[in-house]
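Entry 12.
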Amino acid sequence: MGLGTITLLGMLCTPGQAPADVTPWNSPSMKIPIDYHPSKRAEIKELLLYVSPDQGQTWQQHAVGYPEKDGFFTFNAPADGIYWFNMVVVDKAGRREPADVYKVAPALKVLFDTKKPVVQIASAQRSGDDVTVVWKVTEKNPDWSKFKLEYSTNGATWTAVPTRPEADGSAQFKVAGGGPVTVRVALTDVAGHTGEAVSPVAGTTIASKPTADPGVVGAAGMIDVPMAGGSSATAGSPVTPPVVAPATERAKDTRLPNEPKGSDTPTAPVFPPAPGTPGAPVVPPDAAPVAAPKADALNVSTNILSSLPAPQVINVTSFKLAYEVEDKGASGVGKAEIWVTRDDGHTWTPWQTIDKPESPLIIDLARKGTKDVEGVYGIKVVLQSGAGLAREAPKPGEQPDLRVEVDTTAPALLVFQPVPDRAQKDTLVLRWKAEDRNLAPEPITLEWAEGPKGPWFPIAASDSIGATPGSARRLPNTGSYPWKVPANFPTHKVYLRVTARDLAGNVAEVIPVEPVLVDLNKPAAVKLNIVGAGH
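Predicted 3D structure (tokens):
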């Protein structure tokens, strides 16, 4: 990349490469040696392996080892990503070192990456001696120093083509002679996996098939963010607005939708009517989907629309944007121009200029006082050298380097009166309705308490690595959950708390005003017998 073109690395992180203190690992399984001072062996009772899947926000005990028989811990990563590890030594008096894993630096950081890059050759064309190749690479952790573009005229000997490594790139080079030409594009990621695509060159576009799982999302310099429901959005996708009755208040507001504000002691009904019951809000039939705008109408090619990176969903309008500078000259970087698009590259607006910029930059999407601040933004950064040289500003039809979606609205959440499950004894069916344009894949947690202010206990407890012991498991938005009330339950009435989350981190929470009866037994008199005279 020339001066003025940068690699966007995302908010507060550096996707696209492993940090210097992180060990890349290309297998889901790892043996972690147990290390301690030999002189202390007689004092050690056990060794505990703690794991954090969220870079220290939460820790969970994963395994127990004993000095007399264990030389290592075995860890199997449930999914690709960065995991932190710490070992706690427990002596025979029960003392722990370190006493709190939250207060010490991790002993080991590992990036588990088990997928090889997806490499596609979108087109390979020849006109005379000129060969033009267009490619697309999808990889979360690329090592761009190991990117290769090569050609062969005999299928055996390959000639390297000097080019700029990019996720979405193209190159033009000359090949003398009229024989067949084959091109090859390859990339190795930081974990050592290599993906490649090979395609013959012809006068028309020849598309190659991906060499790895096409469901993998991500590109160099882009943030890999799952969309609601696990899908990814492309420009022009129809969006159906929620059709449910009123939304709840923002996070931490425990009132029901029909509960008056300003009262600490609500007197509103405990539950709104469930759908299909008298007094329930009328839900209109689903409207016909809105057709996506044609690419021609926007003067943007279909290829540009289909290759847009998935947006990072955030619930703030100001954030830090990290970047790297390539081909930095002796004059350094004198200025950074931030360009923003609200229509995926159809039009671009100069947003702000920063003199003597340093990574990360502070980007403020609300600085121009836009009322409708929520929505998708595309971002490009154009750097200017200290000598005043810079690349051109983005043109209409040019896609953004990074997309963010600002979503500051909590999900709409309604909770309905639970009903007994006729098919299962001692089972309550808990019911809710949650809607949001960016609802998380598993957004719902269900909890109970003996009082309206807690303490709260999970109805479905989490058993995943990294979860705090006793925390609630996140459930899919099915609208109902059968709660099998445990035997010898400590109370006959409970308060419920239902929480819904979206991808941006917005939270809606509802605690109905009155408790719910969980003792569903109906006593019956049996074995009647006269045992004496009455007085």
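Annotation: The chain has four domains: 17-112, 118-200, 240-282+409-535, 303-406. The chain has a mean pLDDT of 75.
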